[in-house]
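Subject: sequence -> structure tokens, single chain

Hey, anyone have a minute? Need the predicted structure for the following. Not urgent.
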Amino acid sequence: MERPTSEDNGVTAEPRVLRRDEWDTWYGTLIRAFGGVPEPAEEVELFRELTRVDRSIGVWEGDGAGDGAGEACVGTAGAFAFAMTVPGGARVPAAGVTMVSVAATHRRRGVLTSMMRRQLDDVRAWGEPLAVLTASEPAIYGRFGYGAATFALNAEIDTSRVRLSVPAGTDDVRLRYEAPADVLDACEEVYARLVPGRPGMLARRPGWERLALLDPESGRDGASPLQCVLARRGGEVTGYARFRVRPAWGSEGPRGTVVLDDLAGLDPATEAALWRFLFGVDLTSTLAVRGRPVDEAWQYQVSDVRRCRPELRDALYVRLVDVGAALAARTYQAPVDVVFEVEDAFCPWNAGRWRLSGDAKGASCERTSDAADLALSVRELGSAYLGGVSLGSLGAAGRVREVRAGALAAASVGFGSDVAPWLPHGF
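Reply:
Had a minute. Here:
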């Protein structure tokens, strides 16, 4: 089918692939769109290296003077090449959509739509069945087929009044302070071992390990430089915690805050030992936690969850670029045999009926002319894809329509995951 061009939407230029020598201007457009506050030099340099210019696009427009004085960048969008764990443990290629911005001078002129159109066409051509993103403004991306698929837990734990009960074996774990850069490889080995076990986790490409070590003074908000504690059990490295400490003093004495950056453990005892350490850092009374898995065990080990002030936030948004390939790439915790009637106006190659048959061993998903069992949009499939949002809940919200009685409950169970999906870091 013929698609509208950016000119039809009021934009005078089509998105085109970025050239390396345009990166500074392109990135500057992005920073200005997000408020214009300069980022630390080390962060800019890291993202300069991580950017795949061949997977990045921009919209460039002339100044209108007719004198050939040059072009201005008015839109940016990029796509990292990720491999993401899906239910069943497989790693599926996923385009990590990033650095999306439109100049304030060019809002409501079709710039974003033209970039999303070009980008999803490209992702399909690259053979990647999924596109994923984190959203500064969640309302924007639903119309392009992205659905909220993972959530994250924030907390402000009053460690002066909350106690932690730990499982057997915790006392066998030994902790030691280490310089974060010196033990980066050991921490990455722990992370890599955890990736297959939780949907939504990203296998780290070379260079991405450096993200964890970014530590500009301007980003500490009065806290210490990054600290690291390494956990060992039986002589093996089994976990780590990276954090900062923000000192503070009140009329009753020290009231500092531990700010957790990252924590990982290969077993429950290691995780508990790391959390117990963070609860007991000297001269502190608060542990600030951001972006943790919603099913993390510490929530059930604390003496008073209310004094932890838990808060749920949306995290990863998922878009099925190739419905058949994406649904066949994961497994299902209960047998499923269901025909979906999929609506996808933005990527019409997905629209129509698909028969999904699968179980815990594997799945297939093919075009079919059989009658539909469930009707939904690609956005709902994206939300349910990693097992963290139930099809049943989406049905109760009126976003999935049951055509065949009983089909929704069966599919909802099959799509679930015993482990909550989790995005470990932004991009």
